[in-house]
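Our working data are protein records whose layout never changes between entries. An example says more than a description, so a record of this kind follows.
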Amino acid sequence: RGIKEFTVVKIREESEDVRSIWFGPKDGGVPPEFSPGQYITVCENPTKEDWCAPRHYTISSDTELRVSVKKIGVMSSYLHSLPVGAAVKLRPPFGTATHTSYFPQASGPEQGLWQLVQMLKLSQAVADSPLPPSPAHVFIAGGIGITPIRALAAVSAAQGRRVLVVHASGGAGPPALKEEMEAIVQLNPRSEYLTGNRSVVSEQSLRDLVAAHQLDASQTHVHLCGPLPMTEAVLASLAAIGWAQACIHVDFFGPKGAAAPMPPCTGACRS
């Protein structure tokens, strides 16, 4: 389950600065299994310097090994430059920000991971926590934070739940994955996809959403993924509304604290 070589099999430009990239095993084998909401790690060294530049990218599909990458840094710019057929070194899917339905029958290492997740809960609003079943699921995204929500919302819709997605896209053009999100909310009655600027996730907008859909804030689960300032503001709004902390799930976007120094690059992850 270490670093393996994959090939770019398909590319699609989602917006001015977001590209979706599909990967397949270079050896032609079976793609790795994953749970929607997990991420893969790109282990390349675009600058050819002495340090690795591994980066995590959430799988933006519930069925295919695809990432949707915003061009904002060295690694993302590198991924935006790759053509179909290019080789990329990846670590296997990982992460716990997924549906609880993937864990109950788990055994062995996966069961151990589930137990670890439960042990590490520092509060009821838990970072990277699985999303339990609920009659309706609310998903709140900021910018490229829509990528895990795209995968999770698809699972919720497929399970027959009402899906309410609020996306503060922040860009001037159409939001990334807009057509896919619109298709997902069409699967079940009373589902909705709202997008716009930062005001779409304001406290008043969230209160309007609760009223319009008659949501029970004590039982409706909400999954949040976005930049830290937006995340903090939305959490404050949910608290003011009276949302039950046990129903709030946060998938942190970006670093959670000061980054530790990266180890010297090894031959295994040099490009």
